[in-house]
# Entry
Amino acid sequence: MADILAALRSLMASHTPPLNALVVPSEDYHQSEYVSARDKRRAFVSGFTGSAGLALVTMNEALLWTDGRYFLQAEQQLSNQWRLMRMGEDPAVDSWISTNLPQDSAIGIDFWCISVETAQKWRSLFAKNQQKLVPTTKNLVDEVWKDQPQAEMNPVHVHPLKFSGRSVSDKLKDLRDNLKKEKTRGIIITTLDEVVWLYNVRGGDVSYSPVVHSFAVVTTSSAFFYVDERKLSSEVKSYLEENNIIVKDYTAVSSDVALLASNQLTSAKGTQSNGAHDAEDSSHKIWVDPRCCYSLYSKLNPDQVFLHQSPLSLPKSLKNPVEMEGLKNAHIRDGAAVVQYLAWLDKQMQELYGASGYFKESESQKTKTPSEDAKLTEVSVSDKLEEFRAAKEHFRGLSFPTISSVGPNGSIIHYEPKPKTCSELDPNCMYLCDSGAQYLDGTTDITRTVHFGKPSEHEKKCYTAVLKGHFALGNARFPNGTTGHSLDVLARVPLWSYGLDYRHGTGHGIGAYLNVHEGPHSISFRPGLSVPLQASMTVTDEPGYYEDGKFGIRLENVLIIKEAATQFNFANKGYLEFEHITWAPYQKKLIDVRLLLDEEIKWVNSYHAKCKEILAPYLNESEKAWLSQATEPISA
# Structure
């Protein structure tokens, strides 16, 4: 790390202008949460591998900002050359720069890797101290990264109508209607999941997300797809041509945006692509999402930009009936895989470690010690879970790295075990498993926390508080117009009653064979965009509790938002409720039934009865017997 920082500082000093600081974000050219190996620049520079964070290198300091999910992980991974800055507790990076760097400082960043929204905010703040945000002539991290991975070269696939539920022509018509409504003549689309959703294609350029490194520009008369053509088969090229989508090289987007700005972008046939046949049309603006990379935005005159959330963000989150049915089916198959895994793991823990198991409650005497080859580790058991999933119809891979965590590792909210350093399973410790998969008909995300020995009364109390919060949110009814920010408190109140809490949001949208984290809505203590929850959105319900160095607890189901048939309808707003589509039992021995209300007991029993009914057809006889025992009713 010392060599990397020294090399970066040398380039900063010789840069024109010389840089007082260099910002290294986590994001790629598309502001993606998960990025390809080539784009993991912040991880390369800092050694911190979490999915969220930002590095700042000055001439004498190195600082890493990340959020509460990653505090423990960052503490473990950062060398003593780095200082951890805790988001929400320490000053934000722009405030720190403004306060700690001299006037007239030049702060460098690759303008491809910063959003319009962030760049504008920073520029405004820095200007107060005559500080400047300047584009680096090249990405300086790429200059010092000698063994940087090559760009991904994975094939693009057509996502058929039987899974997508809406044709490209239908989506383009809606998009163009929105362009006309806002008096815009074109839009630049940089977010990977929006590009592939619009054109009904999928790819494999980013691990765990079926997206393609690409951009799109859509005008009132043309649609462009900027992608490395080597990824396109003749079949895909024909499909794109049939849908009047013009394919251009990935790198051509920059020059084409400049042409779009000056009304000179033409289709392959040589006609103007923006429909600007008269003076009225030529005055129309260009739609840019605030998340667009600043490099492309800088090709435009700010006066000609309509800076507003992408008109694709909300429609993508509102699942059509085909997507909804696919998501439900994918979660059933996925639930079956999770049950098969838990039943297998229960048997292994008893046979190899002498554990009392999933159902019985006694402390393991550790009378058995498995051989080195037979022992269970966080990685080996998560590989087994992937095996169960891989056997299911339409499986295409995992939707994120499995968080398979034993005991103290469970308190690291986004822990990612590695083969050489992961822990062995321990029958006397809590085990948290947060996992998901990509299927052609849907994306899944589920968390269950279990104990194969004798949990303490404190662990039971904490688990039950998390379960009560999970229940309170998942069974809420609320009027149209309600944001996830307003509902977040429901999941926390049971924990708050003990003086406990957690440092992450409570829910995020889920893609339809797309990103596992999907906006624009969320359920979080952070106000964010405050997008109201709407019928046909998906959202997770995942409260937790983490005791540093001891254990972690999280329970997560995916929910669908639907209209509620309430007795009354105050102010004719219309009311909404949630439907659970995740199916896997909660561990009964971790529930302190004395702390549950009658309605909570009734709900757990009802949910478990549905689990048994829905999943049984996918299980063998021994797995059915295990599930039957796992879902037996509880009582006060």
Q: What stands out?
A: The radius of gyration is 26 Å.
